[in-house]
Amino acid sequence: MEDGNHSDTSNTTVSDSKNTGKRLPGKAFTKRRSLEKNFDCKVCGKTFVNSSNLRIHKNLHTGEKPFECEICGKLCNQGSHLAVHKRSHTGERPFRCEICGKSVVNSNSLKSHKRIHTGEKPYHCEMCGKSFNERSNLVKHINIHTGAKLYNCEVCGKSFMSSSNLKTHEKLHTGEKPYHCEICGKSFIQKSHLVIHNRSHTGEKPFRCDICGKSFVDNSYLTNHKRIHKGEVQFQCEVCGKSFMTNLQLTTHVQTHTGEKSYFCEICKKSFIQKCQLIVHKRTHSGEKPYDCDVCGKSFSVNLYLKAHKRRHTGEKLFHCEICGKSFFDNSHLVSHKRVHTGEKPFHCEICGKTFFNNSHLVSHKRVHTGEKPSHCDICGKYFYSSSNLARHKLLHMGKKEFRCEICGKTYVNNSDLKRHKRRHEGDKTFHCEICGKSFFDNSNLIVHVRTHTGERPYHCEICDKAFICKSDVNKHKRTHSKGKPLECEP
């Protein structure tokens, strides 16, 4: 009988395979048959090799999560997911990367991690061609194209593309910061933020730019940095068209249009767009400067200022103007410099209407109206509107004139004075009066000249209240009161 023959063949297959250790055709057929996907999901059409896998899959559609963690109560739709979750409580990470030594909770995480070393990105977006090392990252990315935001916050209604992003956001409402730094005690909403923070203690910067060699604590910082080399801007303001390297920079910029300033200083009531801006501002009240230069000992209130300062020691100028080729220590100086080419002066004085290339020049200018001179020379007691003016003044006391004209040999205390002097050799009168067309070697002379048209006389004699268009004229006038004797430095 056919059944009997089949039974005999079956028995022979098992017996022979035990005796010889070889896999015979009957066994191979059985194996092939078991790999066939005969179990279909009626909801989404996905197929599975056995009924148990199909049953687990169905839990995704029904939302059923029958596996509960006895420690925290979390529910999972698979027993294997629960086993992996429990490792978050025990700290167990049994899967170790043989390249860098990092340990992870499961084999899938290890496979994904190894792709960082190999550069493999097997998941491709069919819309834009971008590739990813994990399928979950591809799914999140596709939502950017579709605009799908499936996860809603019950507190504020904000929507998110993934449940993990929603969970992170919800911690902003609860104030929960479960990840703590063992060194300084600072807490974080996400573990990834703690990992990045820990590198500020260790000094580790594992992400290196292959163009300029600069290193970063996080891969996202490296990605943003590389856009500087490429001249790439991805995020554009719909109001004014200005472009930014990162979405965070765009979000901050948009608030300048809306006027939204959510963070207030309880000391002076000044308000700020970002919390980090408020923290930095508070240091102007406390005098705190936590960032020290290990070369000269100078302290700074902001780490960014320290980094820019250090480049002055190394001579490193990473930011280049593509119009004239001039290089700068930091990006803010490059941005201000470019306005010289475009003529843009976006900072306006609300008192006299004068405009400036950057905000620091506006701040210094406003002190002309208020009379405030916060920078004090500890040698002669003279006061100045800005720290840069004080620094130039101190060079006079030191007798340092390091900038030499190669044409006539005359020396100057700073480079800007040397440049101004060179224009006289070259006959270069770059500064033109818009009213009468007269040209000048430097901007300060133009400013004084314009006052002859406007009638502005900002310098007053405190003895007789007579007004003058420039400081040198008021000093000459004061000598008429002192009977020609030289005036002492103002205290």
From TrEMBL:
Region (Disordered): 1-29
Biased composition (Basic residues): 20-29
InterPro entries (alphabetical): Znf_C2H2_sf (IPR036236), Znf_C2H2_type (IPR013087)
Gene3D superfamilies: Classic Zinc Finger (3.30.160.60)
A Gene Ontology term for the protein's cellular component: PcG protein complex
Record keywords: DNA-binding, Isopeptide bond, Metal-binding, Nucleus, Repeat, Transcription, Transcription regulation, Ubl conjugation, Zinc, Zinc-finger
Annotated ranges, domain C2H2-type: 39-66, 67-94, 95-122, 123-150, 151-178, 179-206, 207-234, 235-262, 263-290, 291-318, 319-346, 347-374, 375-402, 403-430, 431-458, 459-486
Stated name of the protein: Zinc finger 850-like
